[in-house]
Amino acid sequence: MSMIDVFNGDADGLCALHQLRLAAPCESELVTGVKREIDLLRRVTAGEGDRVTVLDISLDKNRDALLSLLEAGANISYFDHHFSGDIPDHAGLDAHVDTSPDVCTSLLVNHHLGGVFLAWAVTAAFGDNLHAAARVAAVPLGLDDGQLERLCTLGECLNYNGYGVSEDDLFFHPAALYRRMQPYADPFAFIAGDDAFATLEAGMNNDLTQARGVKAETGSASDKGRAALFLLPNTAWARRVSGVYGNELARDYPDRAHAVAMQLDDGSYRISVRSPLSRKSGADVLCRAFPTGGGRAAAAGINALPESMLDEFSEALISAYA
Predict the structure, then answer these.
(1) Which residue of 37, 44, 105, 261 is most buried, as measured by CB atoms within 10 A?
(2) Are 3-202 and 212-320 equal in CATH topology?
(3) Of 127, 82, 106, 101, nearest in space to 288 by CA
């Protein structure tokens, strides 16, 4: 029997897997990649008696591969908070899917495990820009503001590491970063004991400093506009920071929607969209209207928007949040 863990390379995927394997340690094959590589099940070969755990990738985007694995006899546990479409009714599938805007995959896993590794779930919620939900979930931990801030920074750093067009853009491959987290049941021990945190914190702060100097292409620089589009250069720092910068903009201007775009080598645009925090809806619908788009209501993206459609996207963004 093979054990295969398939997970998004961002904070939520990492912390979801970490909780599960702290609760049930095992040797498993790790299947992951950069955050936007979400069709991960196509890389999995499994059959009768094999167990596959899938974390934080859209069921809808992996439907064909999921059905093939189930047909082959694999047993699949699926935890996710992205748009799923119809969930297959199959004896081999144990699905835990909740698309509510204040839920992330790690919080679903935390509920499944009865809260035994809550601090890691809180870390993931902060990384997914669910700050209010993270603080509510953290109440049983009795942490002070300084401790909460450290978990917030850790979550944002783990999330930051997942962004990039290719693994070459990242400081750590997500599988390698998970292995570094693996010995630590306590996230504060990881912060103190592994220099990966310091590396990511310095990199994130440097990249954010550069991103903050970019002016909006559309929308006002103040909170008066309802939507704003930012175009970042085609550089490694921009590819790494696009998601974290979008989250920061969402917190700074909670009544405004944001899109952070960068042009790729082939001329297309990779775009991260954040709904206003005061109205966590619509980002998934907006992005799914364009090629390679997907995500969830509060945060979504487009992997490769044709250059000819950028103006159309800008108009749709403003229209969606007018």
Answers:
(1) 105
(2) no
(3) 82
Is residue 17 exposed (0-12), middle (13-18) or buried (19+ Cβ within 10 Å)?
buried
CA 159 to chain CA centroid, Å, is: 7
| Domain at 212-320: CATH code | 3.10.310.40
Domain 3-202 is in which class? alpha beta
Bridge-partner residues for 75, per DSSP?
51
Global pTM exceeds 0.85: yes
**Residues 147-203 pLDDT 10s:** 999 999 999 999 999 998 889 999 999 999 999 999 999 999 999 999 999 999 999
The average pLDDT across 110-123 equals 98
Give the start-to-end residue ranges of the domains of the chain: 3-202, 212-320
Q: What are phi and psi of 9, to 5 degrees?
A: -85, 15
